[in-house]
Please model this.
Amino acid sequence: MLTDGSGVNESYGPALERLRLLLDAVDRHQFLEQETSWVPEKWSLTEGFQYKGRGKRRRQRELLDGLASRRVFVQSLAQTSLTRSTVRQIVDDAGEDGERLVDAFIAVMAWGFPSRGLGPYRTSVMLSPAEGSPKPVDVLPQVVQELRDFGSLAGYQALMNQLEGCGPAFGTKFLYFASRDGDRAPILDDLVARWMAGRGVLGGDGLSIRSRGWNTKDYKGYLAFLDTASVDLDEPDVGLMEYVMFVDQQHNDYLAAGESLPTWIRQLSE
Model:
């Protein structure tokens, strides 16, 4: 890893400058009240999905009822706006109770998945463990305990490869909401990884930071970048920094969808 003599990774420079502009422009209230575009009817299942994957421990066309069995909770979610701050409260209220954390996990997934995607099916896979696999009701309390006792990287390691179909993009969404204010575990998905790669941010191994597939080195490199950015830019909220990177990359990818993007990012790019 190359540094500038002060221990700061030299590859961070362009990214830090762009982050500075983004943080000056972002609507912080809009960030906290960021609402999902979920469709409650698609998540409130009357019956489970049939398994379509290739899990070695799965039966052909096995019924996945992990989400369907939580229909009452899903219906209760439909009674409120599912914003970032609402989901934070749901996860916080769950504490380390396994059953409540499974419900909270659903809230995170509903908030995080695109409305037109396979969110309900993929969440059903995550919450319907194959025979002999770890159960979400046991995994999630362990993850929360590791996360809150030992930090973001420990939480990441505790969740990695534990729930079928739950990769780092959505696993770190749960970590973000399950961590505490002032010590949030940042989300690492493909948009954020590509934002960093486009600005030359490198991990400790000298390679771009990736988001596809659980990889402790990648997440550790991401945390190191955000730690530096937090100090350099005097911004303690790593969740806010992740958000502006995400929206900036989204804007770059989907200029044609500019009308649906936040006003602050459109104005900054004009």
